């Protein structure tokens, strides 16, 4: 690690990829005579909101395939985990949302950060349904409810059009 190394990484607080300063890092390689892999651990600080997080990246050095680039091989397996867990970052938004909506929102956010995209999609639909129910928006289906939500000015016209 070079001093003051800056990387792009997901910030659970900012809810997007932002620039982070690497405060510390350590790479541990698996045994040379065994399956080749490495674990890279980093302590990061978001340069936007200053949230501290821990990043663990697993590199599978055995899962390679030929390519036309410099070294002739690409590493295809890389798994990344972010800490703190998304649920601990989300909890500071609890006071702004009704209890039921907060529960759906927090579980959907965790599903998104864990790359569970089908559960995320189900959660987003449930969030929209919950918002419509809280605002007493009528409609025979979700499309109609979203249109009615737009006519009240709660969402933009552009967001209503699918």
Write the layout of secondary structure elements.
Layout: E1 6-11, E2 16-29, E3 37-46, E4 52-66, E5 73-83, H1 86-90, H2 99-113, H3 117-134, H4 142-151, H5 157-160
Antiparallel strand pairs: 1-2, 2-3, 3-4, 4-5
Helix pairs in contact: 2-3, 3-4
In a few lines, what is going on in this structure?
With 162 residues, the protein is of the alpha+beta class. Helices cover 32% and strands 35% of the residues.
Give the number of DSSP strands: 5
Terminal residue distance: 46 Å
Major sheet attributes: 5 strands, antiparallel
Order of helices and strands: EEEEEHHHHH
What proportion of the residues is helical, as a percent range? 25-40%
- List unreliable stretches of 5+ residues: none
Q: What is the molecular shape?
A: elongated
What does this structure look like?
A 5-stranded antiparallel β-sheet has the order 1-2-3-4-5, with no helix packed on it. It is an alpha+beta fold and 162 residues long. The relative contact order is 0.09. The chain has helices spanning 86-90, 99-113, 117-134, 142-151, 157-160, and strands spanning 6-11, 16-29, 37-46, 52-66, 73-83. The chain is built from 5 helices and 5 strands; from the N terminus they run βββββααααα. The mean pLDDT is 77. The protein is elongated and about 65 Å long.
Comma- or semicolon-separated keywords:
162 residues, alpha+beta, five-stranded antiparallel sheet, 5 helices, 5 strands, elongated
């Amino acid at each position: 690690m070079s001093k003051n190394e800056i990387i792009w990484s997901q910030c659970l607080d900012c809810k997007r990829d932002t620039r982070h300063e690497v405060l510390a890092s350590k790479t541990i390689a698996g045994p040379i005579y065994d399956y080749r892999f490495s674990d890279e651990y980093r302590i990061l600080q978001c340069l936007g909101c200053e949230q501290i997080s821990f990043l663990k990246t697993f590199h599978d050095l055995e899962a390679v395939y030929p390519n036309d680039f410099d070294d002739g091989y690409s590493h295809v397996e890389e798994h990344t985990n972010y800490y703190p867990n998304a649920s601990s970052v989300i909890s500071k938004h609890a006071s702004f949302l009704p209890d039921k909506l907060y529960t759906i929102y927090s579980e959907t956010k965790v599903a998104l950060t864990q790359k569970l995209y089908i559960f995320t999609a189900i959660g987003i639909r449930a969030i929209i349904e919950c918002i419509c129910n809280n605002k007493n928006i009528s409609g025979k289906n979700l499309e109609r409810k979203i249109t009615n939500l737009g006519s009240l000015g709660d969402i933009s016209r552009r967001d209503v059009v699918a």
